[in-house]
Amino acid sequence: PGCPLSIRSCKCSGERPKGLSGGVPGPARRRVVCSGGDLPEPPEPGLLPNGTVTLLLSNNKITGLRNGSFLGLSLLEKLDLRNNIISTVQPGAFLGLGELKRLDLSNNRIGCLTSETFQGLPRLLRLNISGNIFSSLQPGVFDELPALKVVDLGTEFLTCDCHLRWLLPWAQNRSLQLSEHTLCAYPSALHAQALGSLQEAQLCCEGALELHTHHLIPSLRQVVFQGDRLPFQCSASYLGNDTRIRWYHNRAPVEGDEQAGILLAESLIHDCTFITSELTLSHIGVWASGEWECTVSMAQGNASKKVEIVVLETSASYCPAERVANNRGDFRWPRTLAGITAYQSCLQYPFTSVPLGGGAPGTRASRRCDRAGRWEPGDYSHCLYTNDITRVLYTFVLMPINASNALTLAHQLRVYTAEAASFSDMMDVVYVAQMIQKFLGYVDQIKELVEVMVDMASNLMLVDEHLLWLAQREDKACSRIVGALERIGGAALSPHAQHISVNARNVALEAYLIKPHSYVGLTCTAFQRREGGVPGTRPGSPGQNPPPEPEPPADQQLRFRCTTGRPNVSLSSFHIKNSVALASIQLPPSLFSSLPAALAPPVPPDCTLQLLVFRNGRLFHSHSNTSRPGAAGPGKRRGVATPVIFAGTSGCGVGNLTEPVAVSLRHWAEGAEPVAAWWSQEGPGEAGGWTSEGCQLRSSQPNVSALHCQHLGNVAVLMELSAFPREVGGAGAGLH
């Protein structure tokens, strides 16, 4: 039966009843899947079918759960909220879920949990709250869950000490099983041991105090001048109401004193997991020299961090105070003595919303004042990016990647690339390109990665042209993406998976495992559904600036249609209904017959033949500033005016072609003097560039050009365009 849903990113289907409950009358049982989207909050319960028994909301962008978030879903039995960014769960968030048996809140940012969090769940059997940021749990936190049988609560901060001792006898009395995945992180003596296998006596608060977090900023010796301002920030684990942060100067307690220029703020507690205290010396005098200390104290003991301050007279030679603003923050460098390296704290707290697998994040920028009293360039690499997206993408690059987490990471990363049109930092592109390259190493084991990689590359083609150009200049990011896509077929295909076809908004991929000796030719046409305007039919008249590349609706994906042999293909008379052909390529039957007999293997191996089409030339950026004489008129540059189509092989060679590769390409921009071009990786600085060698234009009409090439690779038509992106170089790069 039908199962209509008014929520675009959700899918609904029927679900069979389990056990004997099948005979109970009532609404049809429904399973609703809203995973892997961009939902910032759960869907309104009123929009879901009455009979919803399973609701999957994993891998979204949900940040919090309000009171009554699921009120009305009275038949719900399973709720999956894992892999979101939930940090707050209001009391009563699960009210009305009287039939719920399974709740998964794993891999979120939850630090505060009380018994009120789980109100309204009388039948809950299984609870997963692992992978969050709490380090301990208060007694009574599960009191509202009388039916609970299994709980998983392992986190990277989980501290197995006296504060958790209540849990073992409570679980025993309730016949509750602590999941074997619930492992202690602290103290070090119990690290990686299963909490459920410990004895009560092992959960004690004795010995040296161990904190999962303890930072003092600045942490290295500071040389300051009289009259300077110096802020301190101390952050530590919050392990209960008795956690306190105290400050000392030369072992004497420090109290706030505005008259003396000592400003001491109230300690702040974050997510029931961290405590932070800030101390500012607003007008430093010689008295401030010496040792400043931040001490974290609780019943179990104390832990300290210290830093030395040296106060100088103002008559010494120094670099002047200076302000520097960049993508890592706004830094005010104080007057600094010649020969001294100055340090500035980064603006963010020293813990982030995504765990940094590569170790604790750096918390300071440094800048040296040379002996002549001149500032050297600063080192800001240890600071987090100020832009939220850049900061998150950077944490992806730092995470260790393996076969078990690659697909999860890729799905999470794809969510962020969906916002690629609003990327504002070239490093956003650089980091995604590096991740696409890493994922390539796992496509042989995880075929599902191919679709996600192509999707991400397609999304990055929506990034501002200038940022793409900067990212290519910085790290060859665009070349990395194209190179990774070109190698997908060779990595993913095998005798068990002989064909891949992936469609995305701006990229399509087709790859085949073929036997060269039985190959008879292949012709592929890239097309899209005809919705609204058709690329190649442009408003306006010659002489006006051409519009930018068309932005297709989300459902207008690029697709390939491939046939063997040598059928006659015309872009203008494409035979699939309501579709428009954008590019075609004809690979001749003689493709593999041109190898010299001496090089041909006795038993030809299987060979991968792969095709790609890119909607435009945005990922093909050359840095050469000069065109050949006559290549374009004064003040104009050649730019890619068509899709870019690629053909390549892996696992077998292709010699000098006896017959050319025939390509037809539809224009999306107006221009003059079309030239057939092939993308060579040996471009300026080994970053690649367009060359006309080996490709010739056969014919060019206002909408379509036909060309012949003597080799495989990426092919496009360049034209002298009258409107260009604002960067030098860019997609409109000269031939070389």
Explain what this protein looks like in three dimensions:
The structure is a single chain. With 736 residues, the chain is of the alpha+beta class. It folds into 4 domains: 1-16 and 27-206, Ribonuclease Inhibitor (Leucine-rich repeat, LRR (right-handed beta-alpha superhelix), Alpha-Beta Horseshoe), CATH 3.80.10; 214-312, Immunoglobulin-like; 388-488; 499-530 and 555-595 and 603-627 and 636-721, Sandwich (Chondroitinase Ac, Chain A, domain 3). It has 8 helices and 40 strands. An 8-stranded mixed beta sheet has the order 1-2-3-5-7-8-9-10, with no helix packed on it. Strands 27, 28, 32, 33, 34, 36, 37 and 40 form an 8-stranded antiparallel beta sheet that branches. Strands 30-29-31-35-39-38 form a 6-stranded antiparallel beta sheet, with no helix packed on it.
